[in-house]
Amino acid sequence: MATKLLLTFAICRLIVTVGLTLDPTELLLLGVDAQLSVDPTDVKAASLDFGLLIGAQPPLAVMHPASSQDVAQLVKAAYGSNFGFTVSARGHGHSINGQAQTANGVVVQMSGSKGGSGMASGRKPPHPRVWPQERFVDVWGGELWIDVLRSTLQHGLAPKSWTDYLYLSVGGTLSNAGISGQAFNHGPQISNVHELDVVTGKGELLTCSEEQNSEMFHAVLGGLGQFGIITRARISLEPAPQRVRWIRVLYSNFSIFTSDQEYLISLHEQPTSQKFDYVEGFVIVDEGLINNWRSSFFSPHNPVKISSLDPNGGVLYCLEIAKNYHESTASTVDQEVESLLKKLNFIPASVFTTDLPYVDFLDRVHKAELKLRSKGLWEVPHPWLNLFVPKSKIADFDKGVFKGILGNKTSGPILIYPMNKNKWDHRSSAVTPDEDVFYLVALLRSALDNGEETHSLEYLTNQNRQILRFCDEAGITVKQYLPHYTTHQEWVDHFGNKWDRFYRLKMEFDPRHILASGQQIFTPTNMASWR
Ligand code: FAD
């Protein structure tokens, strides 16, 4: 009874706020009412994200779906109603710029519904289902990658391609790409999906794959949530390694650093024994960050002094590599690592090695999260900027940004690692530079209100703008990863030759622009002028 009253209240707000003539009983008749919430805690949570940059208006209601059908019913109602309302899927809300938010509509909270949200129906989304023979797993779109891992490990299997942090939802990362140090070898996460169930912007539930509704399949992968809500993904698996040899080596010369990174990713076709399983790297411009928050790799009791490695005190680059192994092959791992390291040209005596269980390696950033949380440094604004930089321009980027614009303070980790474009399916909606090899440069900075100008949100936001302007003026044709633009023309430029298809498919699958309006690519159709 209380739920019904709250829901009626939510619908009245929908009517008042956007001038709908939707009959409240229309939504009540959907049979999803027990999954809708206007609880102020739910609504507030759905109006925030990891970026903490924009104070978006809260949504009108939050849905905690238990099935694809719940999602389909809601979207169908939005699409079919005379005046309509927007619907945004929200995974774990780890976007930076409000991409999972919607002010005048309903947020579908895909992750966390199993955690006992208190919804009256008591129904919950399905658990992961592993197919050991076929080596894939079917997961709910809101499943967090950490839970996907836990389920598949019970069968000795694991997904092949990861993000550095596992508390992200499957639907959220597949809407972007999902990248980490395995991408050079296995491609991004979107290259490791067999099949999807998707609720389109018309409320239809489609199964899609290479063979079935293939245009939809490719559009949704990297599609920024524009064509449908992913309710199920079938993800490719491999036998899970047991342990990881995790190594960091340092460079003071950028061109030697990138040559070594490019050499390592060129080995992707080699047998497993002759390549690393993970290749990343990061930039060190201030001494404090050699022991950066992304891991406690370097011992806090034995901090590495930049000056001891580079007497000029300039920028250092850290190559981060890892080799997976099974306890049964432990005897050969030293030799394999040794022979790969011999081919590299890092600063002698700058090899730092650790050995740990596979799960601990994959879950490494969560440890840092717990530490930052305990110091109140996690829930702060994150003006992050992620760029794909073509290989031919990475040296210009180094000169202009790492050795120029950044000065000697970074306010957070700066990742840099290359990927092979041939591991990305050009039919997906994800956008990458037009070269065989391109780099991810991830400026993962946190803004602090501690009185230091270089830590302030305003300073870091201005610096991001300066970096983009510099790239533009220097002819460095970067593509934003996890893109954020506010004008139509910027989106058209971002998608380049993919724009026409992107637009056509949007008109086909979400003609009222109901979905993921927080991306600010399409404006929801003026409700009153519809039909
Ligand atoms: P949300 O923020 O909830 O949603 C993101 C977008 O996807 C929104 O537009 C939303 O509407 C849409 N969406 C969400 N669920 C669905 C669905 N089921 N169907 C359709 N659309 C949906 N990314 C990497 O690639 N590699 C990394 O190593 C990496 N590390 C990160 C570490 C941290 C600490 C953080 C905060 C982010 C990191 N990211 C990384 C970025 C992350 O992949 C994206 O921000 C991703 O979108 C977050 O997932 P989410 O579940 O929180 O998505």
Automatic annotation (TrEMBL):
<dbReference type="GO" id="GO:0009690">
    <property type="term" value="P:cytokinin metabolic process"/>
</dbReference>
<dbReference type="InterPro" id="IPR016164">
    <property type="entry name" value="FAD-linked_Oxase-like_C"/>
</dbReference>
<dbReference type="InterPro" id="IPR016169">
    <property type="entry name" value="FAD-bd_PCMH_sub2"/>
</dbReference>
<keyword id="KW-0274">FAD</keyword>
<dbReference type="InterPro" id="IPR006094">
    <property type="entry name" value="Oxid_FAD_bind_N"/>
</dbReference>
<dbReference type="InterPro" id="IPR016167">
    <property type="entry name" value="FAD-bd_PCMH_sub1"/>
</dbReference>
<feature type="signal peptide">
    <location>
        <begin position="1"/>
        <end position="21"/>
    </location>
</feature>
<dbReference type="InterPro" id="IPR006093">
    <property type="entry name" value="Oxy_OxRdtase_FAD_BS"/>
</dbReference>
<dbReference type="InterPro" id="IPR016166">
    <property type="entry name" value="FAD-bd_PCMH"/>
</dbReference>
<dbReference type="InterPro" id="IPR050432">
    <property type="entry name" value="FAD-linked_Oxidoreductases_BP"/>
</dbReference>
<dbReference type="InterPro" id="IPR015345">
    <property type="entry name" value="Cytokinin_DH_FAD/cytokin-bd"/>
</dbReference>
<keyword id="KW-0325">Glycoprotein</keyword>
<keyword id="KW-0732">Signal</keyword>
<dbReference type="Pfam" id="PF01565">
    <property type="entry name" value="FAD_binding_4"/>
</dbReference>
<dbReference type="GO" id="GO:0019139">
    <property type="term" value="F:cytokinin dehydrogenase activity"/>
</dbReference>
<dbReference type="Pfam" id="PF09265">
    <property type="entry name" value="Cytokin-bind"/>
</dbReference>
<keyword id="KW-0560">Oxidoreductase</keyword>
<dbReference type="InterPro" id="IPR036318">
    <property type="entry name" value="FAD-bd_PCMH-like_sf"/>
</dbReference>
<feature type="domain" description="FAD-binding PCMH-type">
    <location>
        <begin position="54"/>
        <end position="240"/>
    </location>
</feature>
<dbReference type="GO" id="GO:0071949">
    <property type="term" value="F:FAD binding"/>
</dbReference>
<protein>
    <recommendedName>
        <fullName>cytokinin dehydrogenase</fullName>
        <ecNumber>1.5.99.12</ecNumber>
    </recommendedName>
</protein>
<comment type="similarity">
    <text>Belongs to the oxygen-dependent FAD-linked oxidoreductase family.</text>
</comment>
<keyword id="KW-0285">Flavoprotein</keyword>
<dbReference type="InterPro" id="IPR016170">
    <property type="entry name" value="Cytok_DH_C_sf"/>
</dbReference>
